[in-house]
Amino acid sequence: MTRPKTQSDEQVLEAALRLIHEQGPEALTFERLAKACGLSGATLVQRFGNKARLKQRTLLHAWDGLDDKTRTLAAAVPRTPAGAIELLVALSQGYGGIESYAEGLLVLREDLRDPLLRTRGAAWKTALCNALAACFAGTPSPPQDIGLLMASHWQGSLLWWSFDPTIEVAAYVEDSLNRFVAAIMTAAARKP
Description:
The protein is mainly alpha-helical. The protein has helices at residues 9-23, 30-37, 41-48, 51-76, 81-92, 98-113, 115-134, 146-163, 169-190. Helices cover 76% and strands 0% of the residues. The N and C termini lie far apart (74 Å). Keywords: DNA-binding, Transcription, Transcription regulation. This is TetR/AcrR family transcriptional regulator.
């Protein structure tokens, strides 16, 4: 007879994700995770197989969370350009300060190294761009690929903020996106 799980895989993956965000991807070991979640290293090896699989499952779990958050926010914001800004500002609030953002780039490095995780990133890009484009559907002559343009500007604004993080990231992103949308809407209004 098998013993009941004292923690679900989801709870363990949440502990693994916290460990990665606090100490970097290389800190994720079965020994450290065992201490963080209270299960034995042997139990964790039995569940996840090896360190590479544990890291991949942890990052897939993170993508699941980002997909859910994006869907929830996209459903809640108004279908307007201001709603698109609201969506991206809300997604920016999870980054925290510069140290947290920098650690997040190490996690991104892991996503880029793994073909399965890159596929998840590409799927999220498509979903996010579609959600942003839907916010412009009621505007006259929205630019082609407005969702991708806006998502790209958002990612760029996060990067530029990181070099001079003198204000809170969400405030920086909101200001940058407001200026971007104003420029796009002005250009669209001038179009014959």
